[in-house]
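User: Earlier you gave me the apo prediction for this protein. Now I'd like the version with adenosine-5'-diphosphate bound, so I can compare the two side by side. Same sequence as before, with the ligand SMILES added.
Assistant: Got it. Here's the input I'm using:
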Amino acid sequence: MTAAPNLTGLRHRRILVVDDELALRKGLAQRFEDEGAEVTTADTVTLARKSLKEGDFDLVVLDHRMPDGTGLALLEEQKRQGAAATFIMMTAYSSTEDAIRAMKAGAADYLLKPFDLDELVLVAERALENVALKSEVTRLRARAVGAGGSANIVGKSRAMAELRALVERVAASGARTILITGESGTGKDVVARAIHASSPEGGRPFLDITCTALPEALLESELFGHEKGAFTDAKSAKRGLFEEAEGGTIFLDEIGDMPLSLQAKLLRFLESKSFRRVGGLKEIKVDVRVIAATHRRLPELVATGQFRGDLYYRLNVIPIEIPPLKERPEDIQDLLEHFARHYSRELKKELSSFDAAALARLTRHPWPGNVRELRNCVERAVLLAHGPLLTVADLPPEMRRGDADPAVAAASGGPFILPERGVVLEDAIRSLLDQALVRTAGNKSRAATLLGVHRDQVRYWVKKYGLERWVRRKTKAEATR
Ligand SMILES: Nc1ncnc2c1ncn2[C@@H]1O[C@H](COP(=O)(O)OP(=O)(O)O)[C@@H](O)[C@H]1O
Ligand SMILES: [Mg+2]
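And here is the structure of the complex with adenosine-5'-diphosphate:
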């Protein structure tokens, strides 16, 4: 089910009206308020700039000629700074040139004075509607190519196939609370984003915050916002992430480290869908999907009193657990190839794949840092690679050491790496000889070619290692076939 975007109306829109003429300013503000908008006014460029800095507006209706500067200069400045608001410029009828310049500077539309208020409302609605349509188009396009959706979860293991299916189900279900657990680097971020992107709210904001990143008081005001004067630095009111994420998703990473007092506030929000800003009295209601993640074991934290049991049960309605990479080795090769392609493109290198020795080394690695470690490892290898193949030499030092498998190295033409604890060379020779004889069905001449030695050398080794009987048997079997 896809909720149709609300494309019309000015209800609840935040509008800034900037004009130095009192009567006009009042008239515009009144009309917008009648339409259900929240209006702020400014009579100078300076004041407008201050308002823009403090609050966020959906729409700015801007006069051109002002006592302390031009609206056009303010518009250009705001666009340079990446302002998200939609701007409509008002210019005198005699200066259509200004209107054209305003459009070039990024204004959504312009109004030639004098205009009537119905025309104003129409232009404002149309401008906001275009913005909504544009983001809707982006969203649909993103969904069409699967960008950010479950297709981003790479891996052919059964666990990953089930995870992709679960992500799609959860996204479509309209579930409001989801808990993702898994070791660090297993893909918790990827899964959270995939759920959001695959959901009908995919075009709405996805805001994430790591609960360990800020001291408690700052984290609270970041999440829930604060009123003006709530604390010393609170010079103006500020909306928190819960308000900003309205209609979308808030991703609370490292929830296991959230301070207990905030856990209480979060629980209250999950139960009532409303909260108060820091220093505020008003209950603010928002509809937000909450995805929490942690690499810690919450039941253990509950047992030791570091995490609220009631919050844990509330979050755990839809648990998603991502297994560590070492439990799904079938995914390693897919991930290696995925990131090799990714970084080849990004670093503009012509790479086809990994050579056999490197691949053997990489698939046997236990990956304690999970996919993140693998990704970093591939990035480094691609950066260092000279030829079209990534080799053991391009792997991090700790991965180049370790138990070299001479058979694998030989199969790929080396390089042979001496393991830290040394090798028994005779064993290596014997193992290679064995394999050469198996492959050539006991033909000593061809085995010698495979091993790069004279036939007499093979004859000598066969004798030395007592393989004659085996070779004879093999040769006979071959002859009677
Ligand atoms: N299944 C996966 N498919 C593709 N990329 C993945 C997968 N799992 C993890 N990654 C990548 O590995 C890195 C770490 O993943 P992340 O989601 O940040 O892990 P976590 O949040 O669990 O610590 C990211 O760069 C992410 O893109
Ligand atoms: Mg993470």
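For your comparison, keep in mind: The chain has a mean pLDDT of 85.
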